[in-house]
Specification:
The structure is a single chain. The protein has 149 residues and is an all-alpha fold. The chain has one domain. Helix content is 88%, strand content 0%. It has 3 helices and no strands. The chain has helices at 2-70, 81-102, 109-148. The longest helix is centred in the N-terminal third of the chain and has 69 residues, at 2-70. Residues 123-149 are annotated as: Disordered. The chain crosses the membrane at residues 81-99. Keywords: Membrane, Transmembrane, Transmembrane helix. Residues 125-149 have a biased composition (Basic and acidic residues). This is YtxH domain-containing protein.
């Protein structure tokens, strides 16, 4: 029992020290947090505006060009679903961007720049993949029409 009382007393002492230090840190860091938030707010707003005005139009142009490239001359009724999936996905992406913008999304300039760079890279990679797939499909179509004639 005596050992338990000693342990409890030591625990209470350490707990008091931890609480005191945590309060001291909180008092010192609290104003810094407000300063950081005030500094970030306009940057986040600019990032959201840039995302809406720069990235969304580029993505829409890319998707439109890709759709024109891959659209076959004659479409069967069964084969329209991939295009519909592409259009629905595009609409969902645009809706997400608009909703994020309206909700006052909080992005920093650095995050915005990183997101813009990342999105641009992904768009270019997707474009390259679509071009490769389009070329392969065109080669297959030309080979199959050559084989038939």
């Amino acid at each position: 029992m005596a050992k338990d009382a000693v342990r409890q007393a030591r625990f209470d002492q350490v707990r008091g020290q931890v609480v005191d230090r945590a309060q001291a840190v909180s008092q010192r860091v609290g104003p810094m947090t407000l300063t950081a938030r005030a500094w970030m707010a306009p940057r986040i707003d600019r990032a959201a505006q840039s995302l809406e005005s720069d990235i969304a139009p580029r993505m829409a142009r890319f998707m439109s060009n890709t759709a024109h490239r891959i659209e076959p001359r004659r479409m069967r009724q069964r084969r329209r679903w991939p295009l519909m999936v592409l259009l629905v996905g595009s609409a969902a992406a645009v809706a997400g961007i608009v909703m994020q913008r309206r909700s006052g999304g909080q992005w920093s300039d650095a995050t915005k720049a990183d997101a813009a760079d990342w999105a641009g890279q992904k768009i270019e990679q997707a474009g390259d993949k679509v071009e490769q797939m389009t070329e392969r499909a065109a080669d297959r179509v030309s080979r199959s029409t050559d084989d038939r004639h």
